[in-house]
């Protein structure tokens, strides 16, 4: 197994690229994260019907684009013509759902580390985990920091482990289940990622005692971010990149 001894990632990650300040999961969002000084971004990756890895949070394109329907049934050629910016603000008109290739290139250009959340379309867990991990390994080969792969899907993360064993993995939870130790061990995770509202000082201590690093999402209150850091949370994922900057937790 490849457990990291010290946590190499920044202490603050921009949720969906640019948090609340840009249309999620677009190149403009990544630019916004960098503009606010963040050094790591999180984004959601899934497969089009023709197996292109691209960024989108929901199963459907409706909320975050001018299209309609399930992404699983659309080719990337159909997805890439959709406007993924105007729903957020007219000044982002023309933003697209980018491919993982384009995202990796932008991260490299901006010097940003990446948390690639594998967010499979329903029923495509294994194929998505395998493909995203293989692509991430290829696209980030030689990068200063490897991309941190994460997923709520155990099956997707297991497929990612098999496809790219050397890439670090974090298992995502809402509420942390009783069997978090066996699940993270089976996947050889370096980290556990949890909804910050489900964490307390004791649970953080137990997770750390297991040798796991902790990422807490989605933390938008600076006082709460400080509290989590004091408990031992390693990294927080935030929408408020304007309030919780890259160096926010440096002194804690
Ligand atoms: O990875 C942290 C966070 O992004 C998980 O929740 O729904 O925003 O992808 P969600
Ligand atoms: Mg996410």
Automatic annotation (TrEMBL):
<dbReference type="GO" id="GO:0008081">
    <property type="term" value="F:phosphoric diester hydrolase activity"/>
</dbReference>
<dbReference type="GO" id="GO:0006629">
    <property type="term" value="P:lipid metabolic process"/>
</dbReference>
<dbReference type="InterPro" id="IPR030395">
    <property type="entry name" value="GP_PDE_dom"/>
</dbReference>
<dbReference type="InterPro" id="IPR017946">
    <property type="entry name" value="PLC-like_Pdiesterase_TIM-brl"/>
</dbReference>
<protein>
    <submittedName>
        <fullName>Glycerophosphodiester phosphodiesterase</fullName>
    </submittedName>
</protein>
<feature type="domain" description="GP-PDE">
    <location>
        <begin position="10"/>
        <end position="248"/>
    </location>
</feature>
<dbReference type="Pfam" id="PF03009">
    <property type="entry name" value="GDPD"/>
</dbReference>
């Amino acid at each position: 197994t490849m457990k990291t001894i010290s946590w190499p990632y920044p202490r603050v990650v921009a949720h969906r690229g640019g948090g609340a300040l840009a249309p999620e999961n677009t190149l403009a969002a990544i630019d916004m994260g960098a503009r606010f000084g963040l050094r790591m971004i999180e984004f959601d990756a899934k497969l089009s019907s023709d197996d292109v890895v691209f960024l989108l949070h929901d199963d459907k394109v409706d909320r975050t684009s001018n299209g309609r329907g399930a992404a699983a049934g659309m080719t990337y050629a159909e997805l890439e013509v959709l406007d993924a910016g105007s729903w957020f603000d007219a000044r982002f008109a023309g933003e697209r759902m980018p491919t993982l290739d384009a995202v990796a290139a932008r991260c490299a250009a901006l010097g940003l580390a990446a948390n690639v959340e594998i967010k499979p379309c329903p029923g495509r867990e294994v194929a998505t985990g395998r493909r995203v991990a293989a692509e991430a390994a290829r696209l980030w080969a030689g990068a200063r920091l490897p991309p941190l792969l994460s997923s709520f899907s155990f099956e997707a993360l297991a497929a990612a482990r098999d496809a790219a064993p050397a890439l670090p993995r974090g298992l995502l939870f809402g509420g942390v289940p009783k069997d978090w130790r066996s699940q993270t061990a089976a996947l050889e995770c370096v980290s556990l990622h949890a909804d910050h509202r489900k964490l307390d000082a004791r649970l953080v201590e137990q997770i750390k005692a297991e040798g796991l690093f902790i990422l807490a999402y989605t933390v938008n209150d600076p006082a709460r971010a400080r509290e989590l850091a004091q408990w031992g949370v390693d990294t927080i994922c935030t929408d408020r990149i304007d309030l919780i900057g890259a160096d926010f937790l440096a002194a804690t």
